[in-house]
Amino acid sequence: MLRNRLLFLQNDKNKKQAITAISRKSQAAHNTNLCAKPKARLAAILPALVVTFTGAAAIGSAFSAIAANNESAQTRTYTKEGVETHFTVIAHRGASGYLPEHTLEAATLAFSLRPDFIEQDVVITKDDIPVVLHDIHLETVTNVEDVFPARHRDDGRFYARDFTLEELRQLRVHERANSDGKQVFKDRYRGTHANFKVATLNEHFELISELNRQFGTSVGVYPEVKSPAFHIKEGIDASKIVVDALNAYGFGGESGNSYLQCFDFNEVKRIRETLGYKGKIVMLIGENDWGESDTDYDWLRTQEGMQQVALYADGIGPWLGHLLDNEAMAQGKIEAATWINYAHENNLTIHPYTYRHDALPAGMSSQQVLDVLHNVVDADGVFTDHLVPVLTWRDKQN
């Protein structure tokens, strides 16, 4: 639907009306498609802004200029604080573009494709066990309504925190669905017989550790503490549980092959100062109306905000829609947003989210999207549902 809307906007002569229409549609999606925020419902992201403001012809010219001016940059490596890096590929919720997200099967498939990191979103069960789910709710990715129809809260949602691990094991995990029960991404896994299950964080860490040991590889982990303030109100310290798991499996600490991420800036500070965590931390950046936390993300994207983030975090995970300069796009140019310079000035690693091969907007190819991230934004990597096209693109850069 959003992709079709963007096609319409290309021919809309009134820019102000076009922007208003997108804003209203985004708000409607926020209200009706609760299962898909913040990462899953952001399908069009950065390229959508390009289409809206410039039109297909301007896009083509802009990308031609990028290709001409950055031919050598496309094969470069670059340094931050004197350390040579490469473009990091993060398996978003495992190989979620091919198998139901956050299942052990999706993690195994992701490992086989050799990303740099595999992501785990973490929530805590009734019996205080960390499980890997993107949301604190269950109905968007499981059949909880069928198995436990009366176990919802007053808001109609089924919370993982209200179920023991044994109860969660009775559920089947399926492709992410909208509030009407339809798949968010209709062409992804359509099977109905495979018995995918909710898995614990320890199971994920053990799986990746054992595969690394046997194959002599070093695929890292990238857990996110989901809704830490919610968990604190529930009487549980989700961050400490995740930190303890990272340390127990050798992924934590200064030399651990991991990043620990969170949308809550106060929690990022608490992880660093109160919990004394020494490993790499990423501050996730979204929109204030997503309800992820009480963090002011607009302030974070200021010079002062980036300076404060750099005191506690090693990097940022920004939404793709925040990366480009809107005024430049209105003139048919593709330039990084000013605030991105503040992140670079503070030597913050930049891992934007989320590249989805089945949600590319009209007028842009996979290579163009990735070239913008690499050559314009100077991002250090990307979260992706679809590892194959991103890894293939990266191989060509080398």
From TrEMBL:
<feature type="domain" description="GP-PDE">
    <location>
        <begin position="87"/>
        <end position="394"/>
    </location>
</feature>
<keyword id="KW-0319">Glycerol metabolism</keyword>
<dbReference type="GO" id="GO:0042597">
    <property type="term" value="C:periplasmic space"/>
</dbReference>
<dbReference type="InterPro" id="IPR030395">
    <property type="entry name" value="GP_PDE_dom"/>
</dbReference>
<dbReference type="GO" id="GO:0006629">
    <property type="term" value="P:lipid metabolic process"/>
</dbReference>
<keyword id="KW-0732">Signal</keyword>
<keyword id="KW-0378">Hydrolase</keyword>
<dbReference type="Pfam" id="PF03009">
    <property type="entry name" value="GDPD"/>
</dbReference>
<protein>
    <recommendedName>
        <fullName>glycerophosphodiester phosphodiesterase</fullName>
        <ecNumber>3.1.4.46</ecNumber>
    </recommendedName>
</protein>
<dbReference type="GO" id="GO:0006071">
    <property type="term" value="P:glycerol metabolic process"/>
</dbReference>
<dbReference type="GO" id="GO:0008889">
    <property type="term" value="F:glycerophosphodiester phosphodiesterase activity"/>
</dbReference>
<dbReference type="InterPro" id="IPR017946">
    <property type="entry name" value="PLC-like_Pdiesterase_TIM-brl"/>
</dbReference>
<comment type="similarity">
    <text>Belongs to the glycerophosphoryl diester phosphodiesterase family.</text>
</comment>
